[in-house]
Amino acid sequence: MTDLNLLHISVWANFAGFFLATFFPKNWVKQSIAAAVGLAGIGALASTILLFRQFGNPAPIEWSYTWLEWNSAKVSLGYYLDDLALIMLTAVCVISFLIQLYSVWYMNEDPAKKRFFATITFFTWAMISFVVSVNLFSSYIYWELIGLASYLLIGFWHERPEPRKAAIKAFVMTRFGDLGFLATVILLLIKAHSLDIPFLITDAAALLTQKELLVVVMLLFLGVMGKSAQFPLYNWLPDAMEGPTPVSALIHSATMVAAGVYLLVRLFPLIEVSQAGMQYIMVIGALTSVMAAILALTERDMKRILAYSTVSQLGFMVMAVGAGTWHGGMFHLLTHAFFKSMLFLLSGYFIYAAHHCNDIFEMAKVPLKDKSKLMLVLLWIGALALSGLFPFSGFMSKESIFGYLLESHQYAVYAAALFISFLTAYYTTRMALIVSKNGVERGQTPFHEKGSDPFLNIALRLPVTLLGVMTLAGVWVFLPWHKEFFHIHTDWQAEEWLNLAITTTVVLTGMGISFAYFGRKVYSEKGWVTLVPGLDYLISKKFFLDDFWNAVMDKVVIGLANLGFWSEAHIINAAVNNVGYMIVRGGRAVSALQVGEVQRYILIAMLVIVAVAVYLICL
Amino acid sequence: MIYQQLMPYLLLSAGLFCIGLYGVLERRSLIGILIAVELILNSANINFLAFGRFMDVDKAVGQIYSIFVIGLAAAEVAVGLSIVVAIYRKYRSINIEKLVKLKG
Amino acid sequence: MQQLIGDLIFLLFAAITIAGALMAVGLKNIFHNVLSLALTLLGTAGIFIFLHAEFLALVQVLIYAGAISIAIIFAIMLSPPLSMKPVPRSMTKILVSACVSALVFAVFVYIFIKAPWQVSLDPSLGDYSVVHLGEVLVEHYAFAFELISVVLLVAILGALVIAREEPGRPS
């Protein structure tokens, strides 16, 4: 079993699952699910084996099939698997498999679950293909496909109007960003004459001027803004929570939204040449992170808290990449993928416990004895990882970023990162505290987990447990292998200890304030936000971003559409019709010359003769 | 010595032609137009004979041309008058301004 | 002296011709027009004599003034409705026609003056006799001569056909 074969298997296993789940007959539901989940498992296994075999190997696996070629530019399909792609591939495969397993429990009573599994395997295949893609053009194709899958999955329960609207909102906003990506592809094709990723990350930077490079970076980042929910294109992500929870876990926390960050990291050697571009990326990332963190402070819907948290963490990753540490950003992307997806899966359980209500205060009403202890422990593990507390994985990745910022003396960014960290710790602890409340304080809501078959039980509990184990121990167990890749230095100087002290203080402060407000028997709902004048109002209006984009749609987009409609009717159609009218009128005008009066004809004939004679005389 | 120069005859025929032309353009009655046409033919005749007299050609040629013109004029008048009669029978008018069937 | 008389008579005939022509197109009554036409034709016959075409002058008087004018008179007189209705004249039409005619006349005059005519004035050169006319007619223009007979025949037949009354319908 060669490495290339393993790669083929991990890429195409999910596609096979999608294919079978789609084309199996309508009543073969169990078989479709088995095929989908089984094949996803095989893919995950293949990628894990590949990871153990190939990681650290300096020679990447390259395989391509040229699809189109003109001049010196090629569009090809194929794989480029270096360490970065390999680690991302494995993460996507494994997380996707675990989430599909969880979906067996979550979608158990849903009548359309066959469609669900077909779509989710389709998404996984597209995401994997994007990660290992060798050519930027095929990356773009897969990028669009994952956008499509996201649309299909957000609007999965399409009988209700909210998921439909949310799906369209997500698709249109990301599509808008995709224009930037497409423009980048075209620009690179014209200027660098090649779209092959190995070429782009080595030699392409030399072929472009600084200005061109800046334009490329800005346009590429536009695509990232759309997909990875950066300001001002982030407000589709909270609404995307209308989709089923596994979808939120897979797509809108771990994989699709990470695709933007991955793209930045993938093309980092090209991007880092443009200083201005890097600055821009960093600023937007920081801004997004802070805004989203503020919006999470008073949120009641557990999935929306997690959604804002995702936006904030994505901003954090983007900020890190913009500041120059791609390994920090990538490290955080991976740890975040594990604990955030776990948190989402847990939210699925707690929503179920609160009788299908997303409100954390409803969850607080469920008595502690009825909530699964396993789930609560995992919730706290995830929350502490997100806050960045030692020894959880989130701590390591955030430390990597903080350390780099200190080393490169970017103190303003460091301060911003600390502020974000404080807010994150605060709202995450708030969420965890309220969800794990005992129902006796606020009026009980009984909950009984239905005694179901053991397979469903495993489907619920195994994925979250595995993810929890990875969150807790994954970084440490595999440290010898990945520390070089992520530039982790284990020999700490004074600076690193100082950094540790500062960040831990910040995190503990945030957690402490949260405990003060929400830890007691009688607790507030909004915490310290009410103390800051106007902040609550701003948050409730979501910084007016939704209103802004609605206005843009109404005025600009629909205005343009109306303009097009009007001009089509009045200009184009009118022109076409008028050509006909002109001809008819012209004909009528000419026929008016035929008066039928003979003397008139003779008159004109004589005049013409005189005219000709005069002309000939004058010659 | 006027009658021994070419120019007076040419001017005379030109004048006759133009008077005839005026008649063709202005007269309303079909017979009036016919009469004017006769004037034009006469002017042509004078022209032929004048050039026959004053140019270096066989002196019989001008006269022969004029004879033929007279003959054709006769034929034309005959046919023309019968057409006028036929038109009158059909349209009850020989006012040329009323005969505009070819309009449009 | 002789030439002076010649000039005067020439001018007289020219005046008759022009006056007759003006009356032929100018007068309102169509009968007057036709008679003026006859006058014009007589004047033209006189001009023909000045051009040494005596035979032609006779032919003009006989055929043109004698036959054709009379034919027109016959047509006018034998169909009473044809001679009725004096139509009111339109000033526009008169002016326009006069202008156009004047223009054409101007063009003619200009051409006549500017053209380099190669004129041989000697009247004695050349044979103007009827004998010579007949010889040339039969020798060189025999075909045209025959043809004109056919034309006249066709004209007569055509005139008869066109002016024929339709059977059963009152005229």
Please outline the helices and strands.
The complex is a heterotrimer of chains A (619), B (104) and C (171).
Chain A: H1 3-23, H2 29-54, E1 61-70, E2 73-81, H3 83-106, H4 113-132, H5 136-154, H6 161-192, H7 197-200, H8 210-227, H9 236-239, H10 245-254, H11 256-266, H12 268-271, H13 275-295, H14 302-323, H15 326-353, H16 360-364, H17 373-387, H18 393-407, H19 411-435, H20 454-477, H21 479-482, H22 494-518, H23 535-540, H24 545-591, H25 598-618
Antiparallel strand pairs in A: 1-2
Helix pairs in contact in A: 1-2, 1-4, 2-3, 2-4, 3-4, 3-10, 3-15, 3-20, 4-5, 5-6, 6-8, 8-11, 8-13, 10-15, 11-14, 11-15, 13-14, 13-19, 14-15, 14-19, 15-17, 15-18, 15-20, 17-19, 17-20, 18-22, 19-22
Chain B: H1 6-26, H2 30-54, H3 59-91
Chain C: H1 2-26, H2 30-50, H3 54-78, H4 80-83, H5 91-114, H6 130-140, H7 142-162
Helix content of chain A: over 70%
Q: Order of strands across the widest beta sheet of chain A?
A: 1-2
Count of individual helical segments of chain A: 25
In what range is the share of β-strand residues of chain A? Answer: under 5%
Radius of gyration of chain A: 30 Å
Q: What is the rounded distance between the termini of chain B? A: 55 Å
| Average pLDDT reading of chain A | 87
What this model shows, in words?
The complex is a heterotrimer of chains A (619), B (104) and C (171). Chain A is mainly alpha-helical and 619 residues long. Chain A starts with a helix and ends with a helix. In chain A, a hairpin with a 2-residue loop joins strand 1 and strand 2 (73-81). Chain A has helices at residues 3-23, 29-54, 83-106, 113-132, 136-154, 161-192, 197-200, 210-227, 236-239, 245-254, 256-266, 268-271, 275-295, 302-323, 326-353, 360-364, 373-387, 393-407, 411-435, 454-477, 479-482, 494-518, 535-540, 545-591, 598-618; strands at residues 61-70, 73-81. A two-stranded antiparallel ribbon of chain A has the order 1-2. In chain A, helix 3 packs antiparallel against helix 4, helix 15 runs antiparallel to helix 18 and helix 17 runs antiparallel to helix 19 (411-435). The mean pLDDT of chain A is 87. Chain A is built from 25 helices and 2 strands. Chain B has 104 residues and is an all-alpha fold. Chain B has a single domain (2-94), classed as Helix Hairpins, CATH 1.10.287.3510. Helices cover 76% and strands 0% of the residues of chain B. Chain B has 3 helices and no strands. Chain B has helices at 6-26, 30-54, 59-91. In chain B, helix 1 (6-26) runs antiparallel to helix 2 and helix 2 (30-54) runs antiparallel to helix 3. Chain C is mainly α. Chain C has 2 domains: 1-101, NADH-ubiquinone/plastoquinone oxidoreductase chain 6, subunit NuoJ (Four Helix Bundle (Hemerythrin (Met), subunit A)); 127-166. Helix content of chain C is 77%, strand content 0%. In chain C, helix 1 packs antiparallel against helix 2 (30-50). The longest helix of chain C is centred in the first third of the chain and has 25 residues, at 2-26. Classes of the chains: A mainly alpha (619), B mainly alpha (104), C mainly alpha (171). At the B-C interface, helix 1, helix 2 and helix 3 of B face helix 1, helix 2, helix 3, helix 5 and helix 6 of C.
